[in-house]
Specification:
The protein is an alpha+beta fold. It has helices spanning 21-28, 92-127, 133-165, and strands spanning 2-4, 31-37, 40-52, 54-55, 59-62, 67-72, 79-80, 85-89, 168-170, 175-180, 187-188, 193-198, 203-209, 222-227, 230-242, 253-260, 271-288, 293-300, 307-319, 322-334, 337-342, 349-353, 364-366.
Length: 368
Amino acid sequence: MKKYFLGILTISIIIFSGCSENDEAEAEKIIPVQIYEIKPDTISNYIKVTGSVTGENDAIVYSKINEKLDEIYVRPGQSVSAGQVLAVQYNATFKQAVDLAKASVKTAQSQADFAIQEFDRKNQLYEQKVISPQQYDQAKTQKETAENALEQAKLQLAQANETYQNSFIKAPFPGVVGAIFYEKNQMVPPGMPVVQIVSPNAMKSKLQISPKDISSVAYGKSVTIKFPSIPDKIYKGIVSKVNQAIDPVTNLLEVEVQILKPDVRIKSGIFGEFYIEVSQKQGIFVVPENSLMQRTEVMVDKETGIQGSEKKYFIFTVENGTAKITEVKTGISSEGRIEITKGLKAKDSIIIVGQNIVRDGQKVKIVK
């Protein structure tokens, strides 16, 4: 990952020389050009990071039993509510086990009720010295045995019911079905993914950034998001979380980006390019990068004889219908635009179409 500064495009090399007759004839031609009027603007610097998108509450619903998939009630892209049954595995034997367990509980409950009543009756007789201690102990033991049997029957019912309920594949939260991994009548072992549920209205991406960029990234920073598979739209987001520690294995820092106003075209797993804004300049002059002309000057140190080179940048402005070449100084650049720190003033008209064919001092015609 690196800071995303678009390099300056070399449109042409400007050669300065004495004007020949052909040059003079060329200068007499009126060249149609398009212009842009300089005004205070804003430009931002970005860190470019790539990554995939996930839903805020993306989840995979797994099989808990070893049975075939008996029914599928949903399809990919369908909205579902929390707890909605998405699919069901074969469960006839589990349902039968639940029914048998319910019957066992009913029987055990009746036996426990009878044993409790019998114990209460004999307890009164024992207090009245009508029955022996052995008869009392026998009634007490029968009551405790019946109560234990009832608890065991209830436990077996709970286990049978849990197994039966595990045959139902349910949505853990409201969302959209992202994928279904099995077809009807296929055997699904326990622990295998059956359905994916995503949250289309809360999409995020976990990104890894270089330690050198840590100081530039903070909570709430603006993010511009581009998806190669959705070329006609640019999305916005914000940095919603910044980890406090660097991963010791990757030596990278994880940041989380929340996508603002995602639409249905953003799917979980989609690959994107994330431009995290690290700085912004306002009230400055900004021009299209392709309006710049570049010239490399070779310089020789008179004392040492060492050669060096310096890149200089120029822009054509229009004054009174004439093209005028102006040297400028540049600053930061981003997304095809570049800051001009020196050489232009507000309301200057710069040539943005036709700058490759005009010459300094040539007459031009402004067209739209």
